């Protein structure tokens, strides 16, 4: 083999593939013609000096989806691609994929139960008007608080209703009452009980998971005193519909759960499509616990979170 040709081909390949030089720049640097550079690069590939791997993120996502589906016994897993492993970036892409999935999935006369929070609001903002008839959209949990922190409860259910050509059904109550007896009396009101019953009848539920970290939305809304927060941090890993559960997906405080307004977690297991929308490292433990509790049969997440769930 011509040693000089070998040396030139390797140097040309380094400049082209590693340093992003153009073929003309390489020609000037090596003192050869541009066609010669092209032949040197081709020679480098033929001799195995250069190996090109093409990574198709969609192909990898399909593999991750199938592995998650198998590991957690899910009907469907939608893994979207996020270019950055940051919570806000992941939320943006997971929300977009969820909206696309809902647009593909929702049919005439479906009843869609929705929750609230920043993730759900991000999903709602990605929805586009659909030509469907007889769809109902209902709030699955109360969304009123005396805090100045925005839950996006009304905005979320409104945007869902607009997208699916219907009127929003609100649950205009605090999500957690101070007193169990008061909560029970309020739920007996025929207007409130009708909304709660509609949530039970929903064949599609769309929700996310919260955490029990210091900055958790429910903690910032002022529903819990310090002792209750410490209890949830000690025994819980996350919440769905403001119902807190442990690492096995079991309710971690019956007393707090009995004061909570909205759908009970076992009801989610009865849905045709129980869609968990969540991503980001801070939510991995809560997602695992939610899946352990079998509260979702469909998961929408990103590739970073998927890899952590499979680890």
Automatic annotation (TrEMBL):
Keywords per UniProt: DNA-binding, Transcription, Transcription regulation
Gene3D superfamilies found in the cross-reference section: 3.40.50.1360, Homeodomain-like
Highest taxon in the source lineage: Bacteria
Biological process, per Gene Ontology: regulation of DNA-templated transcription
GO molecular function terms listed in the Swiss-Prot or TrEMBL record: carbohydrate binding; DNA binding
Domain HTH crp-type residues, every copy: 20-52
Family: Belongs to the SorC transcriptional regulatory family.
Annotated protein name in UniProt: Deoxyribonucleoside regulator
Source organism phylogeny: Bacteria, Bacillati, Bacillota, Bacilli, Bacillales
